[in-house]
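Q: Hi! First time doing this. I have a protein sequence and I read that you can turn it into a structure. Is that right? Here it is:
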Amino acid sequence: MALLKEGQQAPEIKLENQNGDEVTLSQYKGKKVILFFYPKDNTPGCTAESCNLNDNYNTLLQKGFEIIGISPDTVKSHQKFSNKFDFQYNILADIEKKTLNQYGVWGEKKMYGRTYEGVHRTTFIISEDGKIEKIITKVKTKDHTNQILEELKTN
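A: Yes, that's right. Below is the predicted 3D structure, encoded as structure tokens:
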């Protein structure tokens, strides 16, 4: 599991979005990116986080941000999830977990005494020049937009 640090160059991404189109991180060069990794489509925490970012999409856009979500779900699952909540941003399918591993968000988790492999909910704020500006590991799913904006104020 890679341990990325603030100030490092963000690893390139090349995955399919909810429409089956290829999306790369380099497409967003010159823009700030909120890159959020989440465990699973249509689960309570993931839905709350994704919808919070979507509800505040225009505010974030005005502040110069683009949003990208990534989970190990399929393109078809992402399409249903995106259509259900009318997401205005890309959610990318990382079925092979290559990007999840590059960003160090795939690994051992524990819940209810059970150990399993999964996504550690994490958000990376990436600067216009592709550097990791901020890493948020304790995500407030219902108020993630305000959390991001507050975190950036402290930088």
